[in-house]
Design a protein that fits this description.
The complex is a heterodimer of chains A (514) and B (452). Chain A folds into 3 domains: 49 residues; 337 residues, YVTN repeat-like/Quinoprotein amine dehydrogenase (Methylamine Dehydrogenase, Chain H), CATH 2.130.10.10; 78 residues, no CATH class. Chain A is built from 8 helices and 29 strands. Chain A is globular. In chain B, the strands form 7 sheets. Chain B has a 5-stranded mixed β-sheet. Classes of the chains: A alpha+beta (514), B alpha+beta (452). Chain A: One of its GO terms (cellular component) is nucleolus.
Chain lengths: 514, 452
């Protein structure tokens, strides 16, 4: 019984939403087609659930305690000691005391790591084989580093401009559009590099064409807390006023402004499912938000300088030299402490990042970079066509071409991604009927009519009285169609009422229309 | 304490030898495929655009006749050959792959009006305005492949003379009979010089005839008195007749649903009927702007091709009200005959300008052998296009066709007229007592009477 329930759950996951029922579809032919389509959907969902149950090659990691043991008391050394040799190599400490503090980033397949030291140190590592690929000095402040669509290119936010380098460390571009960038984000499907600068200006730049897609002034001052929602590519900014604003490239105003904390926002992160956001404020609070309702689901006490969600929904946070990892056991964002790790006193952790498809948490701190093992954080089964940790150069090239062909347009970034490819609810006629819309239209028409410039005419036709008369006429003319429409609608409504009264045909005309 | 972390050994996830295929792992979890719907939409849009870019349907013209082409026939037994007859009495066998004449059949004095090949591919029947029916032997594929056999004239096996001119001929499927029409419907046997049976119903000329592909004794004809008649050879009298408002120029049976047939009508429309219920058409196929001259089904039975007096060829789905494709060139004049090739991938049209033209049935299809990966990719793209076909952007690109100016204008004029009529009808209904104005659907409207 339990097994079949589990399977049902999986099927539900793959169905991607419920069938709304086809009874409302009046067209028989269409209904037939849709029924066939639904049948196919359910078949493929079942097949996918079976694949998940039987055919996936790897299993996720776990940390199980025995007796009175507490998982957060387990030391990293013990874990490293217990796991196999290959995995134990993934936990390391690299001490670089001179050029820190460090920031880091992983490629989407988790194969490469990029580290940037505040005092100009850039290095790229193959974390699978633990080889250093390239290391160089830019002799300038580095504030953030980000990989672009694959390991071949990366961007670094430096003192005055952002730069794009390739894998061997050659400077490819200097992006001079956004001065003094503080933080960077790359939107995979859209090929957009997003940067926020010291003046609170948000810039979207297309990395395929170099075009500036959006340039917005937030007007909320200096801002260096930025993250992208992986579900819909909406950018979130955390401001000093305690506000979090959500942005898309095509609108100059934020999609959403929410007051999250009474004090500056220190960090924010998004869960993979797209509707859970974690924010940390200077007000000694960490909050979890449901973005469907814009409500705080949970509020915890604590400081965090940086936050990150793993692929399986673990939440890592760090303040000072203490790193805490929280886990949601029940599935309804009821987060509880799962693991903790303390660095040497005096170390300041700058940024935590879960490594995709591995049970590893990497972090940059004031004296170098480290990584620890976090069992159960990464997705055990990768999809070759999404992100492949064992990618060959040929596969990488092919994927790049396909990604460029499937590049999405910046207009497609919106809060509810499922709307893409759907139909507008309500017919066009209904839409036209909304009262406010019609009034706005009328006002616009009237304004246009009033603003019309008249020609100067001779022979007394430009007399003030005539001009006044003409003006009135144009206004009336502009108003007329709207009024007529309204009258027509009213008549229709009256008629409907009469027919509702169900009078015999002959008597209907005598029905009082009120 | 029990601990396990993800640990993948490279041997398990990569290929062993360089000759092996790369290993592919799939995980269909929706969480990993963020924004998949948007990506699919982008793919559909790109596929629609690429389809437009690759749409080059015209493959070539087959030049040789000196007068307008009046009729064509497929050889059901041989894919590459097609027969064509022209208004000057010339009959030619063409090799489609080399686009050249293989053989000429000389004999007719006037226009050839009908051509048909027997199902076994041995005998070609032709008839014409010179009141003769001629039987020809069809050369085997080997002779047809020889290039030097062109301009090689053959003599008819038999010539049967009648009193009246003939308008069309069709051969029975799997049998020895064929039917000619003109002043009456005559059923002939290969080996007899006189008709086996003759039918007449009304006095007007019969203009087209087609045997049912599933039941060899049933045939349908259309006549100048605007009628469509069904005959059963086992009975002495015709079985069913309907009269429409305008004449039907050609008939084609649906090979997959052999109780259904489609008509090419003078009133610019095609009508699909079910032979068991002829009270109303199953579907009206509108789009042509002038009389439809010929119609032929694809062997799949899912679509048919029509040729029209408006100098275009259109391809319709068997159940769609509007065409999915229109073919035209500057030089193609009025189209008198069209045929779908026996493998459903080509369309051949014969027109007033003495040329046969060869078109692809799917304008953007890649010819030749497709690799399995290419085929799968194509199938996927077709599926996403199908999925998003109702979205305005995709729809606009997929639907767009360039039309010659006269046809564009004629179509918009016809649309205006239809709209006006509709509006008038609506007003009439609005201002009369409910129920007094009855609208007859277009499927019924064009039928004048039905006679059993």
């Amino acid at each position: 019984m339990a097994l079949s329930d589990e399977e049902d759950l999986d099927i539900k996951k793959y169905l991607r939403g419920e069938n709304k029922g086809l009874k409302a579809v009046k067209d028989k032919k269409l209904r037939g087609q849709l029924t066939v389509r639904e049948e196919l959907y359910s078949q493929s969902a079942k097949a996918a659930a079976k694949v998940e149950k039987w055919l996936l090659p790897s299993e996720g990691g776990y940390l199980e305690t025995e007796g009175l043991e507490k998982s957060w008391r387990i030391k990293q050394e013990n874990i490293v000691h217990e796991v196999d040799i290959l995995s134990s190599r993934k936990a390391f400490d690299i001490v670089l005391p001179d050029l820190g503090p460090y920031v880091l980033d992983y490629t989407s397949n988790g194969h490469y790591m990029l580290v940037g030291g505040r005092r100009g140190h850039l290095a790229m590592m193959d974390v699978m084989s633990m080889n250093l690929i390239k290391e160089f000095q830019v002799r300038e402040t580095i504030r953030d580093v980000k990989f672009l669509h694959n390991d071949q290119f990366f961007a670094a936010a430096q003192k005055k401009y952002s730069y794009i380098y390739n894998k061997v460390g050659t400077e490819i571009h200097c992006l001079k559009e956004n001065l003094f960038p503080l933080s960077l984000q790359f939107l995979q499907n859209y090929f957009l590099l997003v940067s926020i600068n010291k003046y609170g200006q948000l810039l979207y730049q297309d990395t395929t064409t170099g075009e500036i897609v959006g340039h917005h002034r937030t007007g909320l001052g200096r801002c260096d807390v930025m993250n992208a929602n992986p579900f819909n590519s909406v950018i979130a900014l955390g401001h000093n006023s305690g506000k979090v604003t959500l942005w898309k490239p095509t609108s100059a105003n934020p999609l959403v402004k929410m007051l999250c904390h009474h004090g500056p926002i220190a960090a924010l992160a998004f869960h993979n499912n797209g509707h859970l956001m974690a924010t940390a404020g200077m007000d000694h609070k960490i909050k979890l938000w449901d973005l469907r309702k814009f409500e705080a689901v949970h509020t915890f006490k604590g400081h965090a300088k940086t936050l990150d969600f793993s692929q399986r929904g673990l939440l890592a946070m760090a303040s000072g030299s203490l790193i805490k990892i929280w886990r949601d056991d029940s599935g309804n964002s009821d987060y509880q402490l799962y693991m903790s790790h303390r660095m040497l006193k005096g170390y300041q952790v700058g940024e935590v990042r879960f490594r995709p498809y591995e049970d590893v948490l990497g972090f940059g701190h004031s004296t170098g970079i480290s990584s620890i093992l976090v069992p159960g954080s990464g997705e055990p089964n990768f999809d070759t066509f999404v992100a492949n940790p064992f990618e060959t150069s040929k596969q990488r090239r092919e994927k790049e071409v396909h990604a460029l062909l499937d590049k999405l347009q910046p207009e497609m970034i919106m809060m509810d991604q499922t709307k893409i490819g759907g139909l507008k609810s309500g017919s066009r006629a209904e839409e036209g009927k909304s009262k406010e819309g019609r009034e706005a239209e009328m006002d616009a028409a009237l304004a246009a009519a009033k603003g019309e410039k008249r020609k100067k005419k001779t022979k007394g036709r430009s007399k003030p009285s005539k001009i006044e008369k003409k003006k009135k006429e144009t206004v009336i003319k502009a108003k007329r169609p709207f009024i007529e429409e309204r009258v027509k609608e009213e008549e229709k409504r009256k008629k409907q009422k009469v027919s509702e009264m169900q009078l015999p045909l002959a008597l209907q005309r005598f029905a009082r229309s009120s | 304490m029990k601990v396990k972390v993800i640990s993948r050994s490279a041997e398990e996830f990569t290929r062993e030898r360089s000759q092996d295929l790369q290993r592919v792992f799939r995980n269909f979890d929706p969480k990993l495929h963020a924004q998949e719907k948007a990506v699919e939409y982008a793919r559909a849009l790109n596929a629609a655009k690429l389809e437009k870019i690759f749409a080059k349907p015209f493959l070539g013209a087959m030049d040789g006749h000196v007068d307008a082409i009046s009729c064509m026939a497929k050889n059901p037994n041989y894919l590459k050959g097609i027969f064509s007859g022209s208004m000057d009495g010339d009959i030619r066998l063409w090799d489609i792959s080399s686009r050249s004449t293989v053989q000429q059949f000389v004999g007719h004095k006037g226009a050839v009006r009908g051509l048909a090949a027997s199902t076994d591919g041995s005998i070609l029947v032709s008839c014409g305005n010179d009141c003769t029916v001629r039987l020809w032997s069809i050369p085997g594929p080997k002779i047809a492949d020889l290039d030097d056999a062109s301009e090689n004239a053959s003599n008819p096996l038999a010539v049967y003379v009648s009193k009246n001119a003939f308008r069309a001929v069709d051969h029975q499927w799997d049998g020895n009979l064929f039917a000619t029409v003109g002043a009456q419907v005559d059923i002939w046997d290969h080996s007899r010089s006189e008709p086996v049976t003759s039918f007449a119903w009304g006095s007007d000329t019969v203009v087209s005839v087609r045997f049912n592909p599933a039941h060899k004794d049933i045939l349908a004809t259309s006549a100048s008195d605007r009628s469509i008649t069904l005959y059963d050879l086992r009975m002495a009298l015709p079985s069913k007749k309907i009269v429409m408002q305008t004449r039907t120029n050609a008939i084609a049976w649906n090979p997959r649903e052999p109780m259904n047939f489609s008509l090419a009508n003078e009133d610019c429309n095609c009508y699909s009927y079910d032979m068991r219920n002829m009270e109303q058409a199953k579907c009206v196929h509108r789009d042509h702007v002038s009389a439809v001259m010929d119609i032929d089904y694809s062997p799949t039975g899912r679509e048919f091709v029509t040729g029209s007096y408006d100098r275009t060829v259109r391809i319709f789905q068997y159940n769609a009200g509007h065409s999915r494709e229109i073919y035209h060139t500057k030089r193609m004049q009025r189209v008198f005959c069209v045929k779908f090739s026996c493998d459903a991938s080509y369309v051949i049209s014969g027109s007033d300008d003495t040329n046969l033209r060869l078109w692809k049935a799917k304008a953007s299809e890649q010819l030749g052998v497709l690799l399995p990966r290419e085929r799968k990719k194509q199938e996927y793209l077709d599926a996403v296009k199908e999925r998003f076909k109702h979205l305005p952007e995709v729809k606009r690109i997929v639907r767009h066709r360039h039309l010659p100016k006269p046809i564009y204008k004629a179509a918009s004029l016809r649309r205006t007229m239809a709209d006006a009529e509709k509006k008038k009808e609506e007003r009439k209904r609005a201002h009369s007592a409910p129920g007094t104005v009855v609208t007859v659907p277009l499927r019924k409207r064009r039928i004048v009477s039905e006679i059993e």
